[in-house]
Amino acid sequence: MDDARAVERLTRSIEDFNSVFIRLPASDRLTFSALSVLHTLSRAGPCRLKDLVRTEQIKQPALTSAVAKLERDGLVERGPDPSDGRASMLSLTAEGQSIVSRRHADRAERLGGLIDRLEPADRTRLLSIADVLDQIVQLADEQGGTPDERSGK
């Protein structure tokens, strides 16, 4: 199989896996957008709304609405932006961080149960690719911007 076809197959496999993976935890009845905001704030730390617009790939009005609901629910809070007194920084509350941590633990447990059903050699191969996936994420971060921004769409 040539590289282009292998990348196409890998892309399809990742898309299919993501469809399964994002649905693993059944707890916390929040939208995917809201959960993505919580996850981003957990990983990146406090940031401005305009920074979230770039990472979340949804329009600012929809994101503003999602963040307002997360604030009302006590999962996100606004604080002053130390570099710009007119702006505010969004960050997770303890309850918001608890949801992210609980979802991660739920996913790890459920994914572990699926991985345990694999043949030992496949389990070992799968578990060994985390470093490679981390490298891809780092390369994407270094490239900067969302996929749409990078392609000019």
UniProtKB/TrEMBL annotation:
<dbReference type="InterPro" id="IPR000835">
    <property type="entry name" value="HTH_MarR-typ"/>
</dbReference>
<keyword id="KW-0805">Transcription regulation</keyword>
<dbReference type="InterPro" id="IPR052526">
    <property type="entry name" value="HTH-type_Bedaq_tolerance"/>
</dbReference>
<protein>
    <submittedName>
        <fullName>DNA-binding MarR family transcriptional regulator</fullName>
    </submittedName>
</protein>
<dbReference type="Pfam" id="PF01047">
    <property type="entry name" value="MarR"/>
</dbReference>
<keyword id="KW-0804">Transcription</keyword>
<dbReference type="GO" id="GO:0003677">
    <property type="term" value="F:DNA binding"/>
</dbReference>
<dbReference type="GO" id="GO:0003700">
    <property type="term" value="F:DNA-binding transcription factor activity"/>
</dbReference>
<dbReference type="InterPro" id="IPR023187">
    <property type="entry name" value="Tscrpt_reg_MarR-type_CS"/>
</dbReference>
<dbReference type="InterPro" id="IPR036390">
    <property type="entry name" value="WH_DNA-bd_sf"/>
</dbReference>
<feature type="domain" description="HTH marR-type">
    <location>
        <begin position="1"/>
        <end position="135"/>
    </location>
</feature>
<dbReference type="InterPro" id="IPR036388">
    <property type="entry name" value="WH-like_DNA-bd_sf"/>
</dbReference>
<keyword id="KW-0238">DNA-binding</keyword>
